[in-house]
What does this fold into?
Amino acid sequence: MSIIEIENLEKTFKVLNRHEGLKGAVKDLFSHDYKYIKAVDKISMKINAGEIVGYLGPNGAGKSTTIKMMTGVLDPTSGHIKVNGNIPYKNRRINAQNIGVVFGQRTQLWWSLPVIESFKILKMIYQINDKTYKDNLELFDSLVKVSSLYSKPVRQMSLGQRTLCDILAAFLHDPKVIFLDEPTIGLDVSIKSKIRMLIKELNARKNTTVILTTHDMGDVEALCQRAVIIDKGKIIFDDQFESLKSMFGSYRTLKVSVDDMSEKNINDTIRIIESAFNQTKALTVNRSEDWIEIIVDQDKTALTDVLSFVINNIHVSDVKIEEVEAESIIRKIYEGGRTV
Ligand SMILES: Nc1ncnc2c1ncn2[C@@H]1O[C@H](COP(=O)(O)OP(=O)(O)OP(=O)(O)O)[C@@H](O)[C@H]1O
Ligand SMILES: [Mg+2]
It folds into this structure.
């Protein structure tokens, strides 16, 4: 049964075309010069109860706007949306009972209060009965051993501890759907894997539907059977994560740093690498902060060939090999259709 049904959903923002400077700011006060931004452009999808769906896409793709419509914060411009049978923006209160929300960089908890006091407030707000409340606290502790944290005020917590508590708070009232917006952002490997395990366990035990927004492919890999990718407001992929994986499975990222990071030297280095391999179209080279990033298609050329070329022809100071990041895959899917 579908717990979320979205049909031709659209959200257009009307924003002022702003002018520069003080004169411009005054002009803006009286201006009717608007432009329209289609943040979500006629998307449709159905999500079944108990699914964990990765909702992915580059910055500005429309993910948060979709989530805001699902949580009832924003009204759609047109189209239909139902969460657990309710129209979220019309029945905000009922919808709030059915959902839990976690934003990776913002806490929903009371900053100065010990966590347990926040939990007690949530118990009252959501009218959680004593048994459910007690059972859930026991379950949380059996999964992630957090009870020692409960007396700590949120402001004294590390980001990882706080995120853990935020996730527990969102699950406390047994919501049917949980929205997680970048829950593992900025966290180290060990707490990331703890959080992934927690989400997976709670989903399995309570059959909670999870919509997960992330830029971390590791999250998707660990949690999601299905991935939905949105770009420029349109859904460009909706399928099993496995099929997405098979599309980029052969790709690896080789990161190289050089001593001379001047614009000229970086551009020269990129050109040398590209021209050595451009016949096979096996790689793309970009600058990424302090690294030169080479995305290699191992079906076309061996990673070791690229590595040895780089080491023999360029003065490198450091090298690392990584899986391809979600952003690069999404860019490739968008640029090249589904033929990555
Ligand atoms: N309240 C608003 N008013 C005007 N434009 C907005 C508003 N909210 C979002 N937008 C625009 O809508 C588009 C989609 O934004 P959205 O926040 O949904 O992206 P996102 O996929 O969540 O990106 P990110 O990965 O950076 O969080 C962007 O172009 C953004 O600038
Ligand atoms: Mg967002």
Observations:
- The mean pLDDT is 89.
- The chain has two domains: 2-8+40-246, 250-323.
- The first strand starts at residue 2 and ends at 16.
